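Write out the 3D structure for:
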Amino acid sequence: MLSYSRSMSAAACCLAVAVTVGCSSTPSQPVASSTTASTTAPAPEYDLTGVPGTVLDSEDFGERSAELSDTGATLYRFVYESTSGVDNSPTAVSGVAAVPAGTPPEGGWPIVVYGHGTTGVQADCGPTLYPDLLGYQFVVQDFTALGYVTVLPDYQGLGTGGGTHPYLEPRTAGNNMIDAARAAHTALPDVSTRWAAVGLSQGGQAAWAANELAASYGQGLDLVGSVSLSPPTDLTPLVRSAEDGTLTRPQKELMPYLLYGAQHVDPAIDPKDYSGSVAEANNELLLTCQGGDTEGKERAVQAMAPDEFAADTTESEQRLFDVVGRYTLPQVRTEVPMFVAYGAKDDVVLPQWTADGVEKACALGDSVVAQEQPEQGHDVSDEAAMQFLAAVFAGQSVPSTC
């Protein structure tokens, strides 16, 4: 069986939470496109229909991506309609879809929607703006080679420039995953309704949320399972660590993104109320993605005090706890199995946080295949996940570890 460990090793810095754009020494540059937006360009206007999954715009992506053009797959960059998890308003989200070469199986090509890890929070942080998808070309290549229509959504606020990115708000990301599958099924020929949600880190949270939302929001599709690798299930311990000064270095890099996203969920959140002198002075730098000054960002993070992100007042502290408390997974019982893997040495999403989420999901009656990997950090092995995915697509029973 082909593993996507190649994807994870080649794009490891793009998959983990709190990364900067460009995983090589020479970051890729955005492709020029009529549907491409950046933080310095006006957001494109789309006539939203109110029908999630509607394709609003599309273009040939193969001509723009030498990294993917030799796969034989047919490649599209498209903009589709989705729904904000914050206020239920219609939104425009961009993504890339790859259709395998050859004859589709009976019933059409199955779909894998892959949720990417943190790339940033601004409009130019969408992987589909870059020829190499910020390293995710390997994910697309590998899943397409396995015979899946592979879809990589940017998430709301990334890529299109439309709206804002409510970072780690799970309902939005879950809706974006579901609607990416819906858009692929309705707009592309010979595509099945059967699909799986897969992701690592931020994308692992998105895949978990998509599984929870499938019963209420995913009508017309047939979700077979989800794979969540190193998913952030509960961010209240992160805020608690910010208060008591025990954040790890990568968690300090994550906090400006979290505060940015929280402000767009609750405008009463002011990131300045949680930022020390270093974070406030370097806020613009810390939020960059495309072509960012990675060395300057690292110097800023290293200069931060242990309590750099402690709230100014108890009222501000409680306000942030209230917002991130709404992000906590699980929220409802799922109807299809999920695979969850996490590393015992993870210093971004601490293993106990994920273990607690799994325990709560089991208590709800979810079918969970959970795996703690003793020697792994945030970047976990995928072998068992791929076996799980093959089994659920084949309609096989997958014993729960609950």
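The first strand starts at residue 55 and ends at 60.
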